[in-house]
Amino acid sequence: MHSFDLHRPEGANKRKRIVGRGQGSGRGTTAGKGNKGQQSRSGGKTYLGFEGGQMPLYRRLAHRGFSNYPFKVTYQVVNLSEIETRFEAGDTIDVPSLVAKGLVKGADPVKILGNGDLTKKVDVKIVHVSASAREKVLKAGGTVAEAPPPPEKTRSKKKKPTQKTADALEKTETPAENGAGVGK
What we know:
This protein is of the alpha/beta class and 184 residues long. It has a domain at 76-144: CATH 3.100.10.10. It contains five helices and six strands. The N and C termini lie far apart (111 Å).
C-alpha cells in the first residue's frame, strides 16, 4: 500500500435505503413499516415510559419528599501526600497553584485532606481544609489561612429600594397629609 492510495475500508460507504418507490423495488407499498397500526403512521411514536394507555409507573407511584441532588456540592480532593511530592518548601498553596500543578481543575471547590505526611513548610490558602490536614501543616511549621469562599450564586430577589426611589416615595404625599379635601 502506498501513501497516496487512500480509500475508505470495505463497507464504509453504504447507499441510503430508498423506500416507497413502487412494488418492483422490493420496498414499495408499506415501505418496510408493516400493515396498519400506530407504528406505520407518520409521527406514530410514543413517549418514554408509555405503557399502552395503562397508567404508567411514574404516575402510579407517589412522589413525596425532597431530593438534595441538584444542590449537592462535590469537592476536588487533594491529599497532603500529593502536596509533599509536587510543592517545594515555602510555596503558597492556593487554587491557581493547584491548577498549575495539574492537581485540580478550576470548576469545583477544593478540599485539602490529611492523607499522607507533610515535612515541608507550606502556606495553605484554601477555603476547605480538614482538621487532620490543618494539624499536619501547622506541625510542619506552615500556616493555614482559609481564603474567603467565592460569592455564592443566588437567585434574583426583589430589589431593595435605592436612595433615588426612597426620595421619590418621600416626596409623594397622600391627600390627607397636605390638607386637600379635609372638612369644608
